[in-house]
Every structure is written in structure tokens, then in C-alpha cells.
Amino acid sequence: xxxxxxxxxxxxxxxxxxxxxxxxxxxxxxxxxxxxxxxxxxxxxxxxxxxxxxxxxxxxxxxxxxxxxxxxxxxxxxxxxxxxxxxxxxxxxxxxxxxxxxxxxxxxxxxxxxxxxxxxxxxxxxxxxxxxxxxxxxxxxxxxxxxxxxxxxxxxxxxxxxxxxxxxxxxxxxxxxxxxxxxxxxxxxxxxx
Length: 193
Prior knowledge:
single chain; 193 residues; mainly alpha; Arc Repressor Mutant, subunit A
């Protein structure tokens, strides 16, 4: 893998890409898996509802796409209020990665990925709204409902749009904060005597 990274870096240098880029194996695996998911969305859902559904715990072995992120301290540092604010996007990503999930699995996934305790009273209305909006399909089984992505491209575009807005906001806020720090250090407040 190191040879591939070195080859990629040298190709970037030869192409005149002027950037200090660092690669890590989990980042590349996640990016490659995401690219494969976006290119081949046919496996994300099926047209026929399943006849039998078995709970599958979210593990690194079962879902290599999220392996680098499971039990990650940075993700566990995200506040429950932020998770609740963006629960639609979180649910769409988790259901897309899984290819389908029931509510119990999604609650466990959110807890495992983010350390957040989202209540069923918060999550289930959002699943219904996503289904009503045509982003999810819901199959009713004997003891549970299974949610699948109805239109993978629409789901990806929705999440991508929200993520872009969040990144733009975060970069803008961080830039303003950096300017404030620079201005304060350049113009110290007079001390009271």
C-alpha cells in the first residue's frame, strides 16, 4: 500500500499538483469504498421487500466502509444536539451503508458511531418523514419495519448538499475566529490600573 501511495504522490507531483497532501490507509479505504458505493448504487436496495430480515450489528468486519470510524473518539465528541439536528442525514448515510435497517439497528448504530443517545421518539418521526419525502422505502414485517434507500442518487445529493453547507459554515466561522484572535493579539486591551 505504501508503494501505491508513493506512486500516487509522484503522479500528482508530475502533473504539477502543488499541494501538501498526506494520505492515511483508513482515509483511502473509506474514500475508495465511498466511490464504489456512489458508482454502483444498484446494491444499496432491492425492489422486492425482504421475506425475512435479521438484525445485523454494525461492526468493522461486517461494514468495512465504516471500520475506520467505529468507536472513534472524535465522532463521540460530537454533541447529541448536533446529531439530533442532522439526524436525517445520519439516518440516510447509515441506511445507505447497510443497504437497509430497522429502527433498533439505527439507534444502536448512532450510539456506536457517535456515542449519542437519540430517543426513538426523535428518530422514528424522521424515518417516516424521509419515507414520505420519497428518500426511503419502508417494508413492514411481523415485528419491525425495515427502511431502505428508495433513490440512492437523491439520498446522496441530499446528504452532500447539507455537508457542503456545514463545511462552508465551519470554515467561515473558523476564519472569522482566527481574524478575531489576530486582531486581539495585535491590539491588546489596555490594562486597568
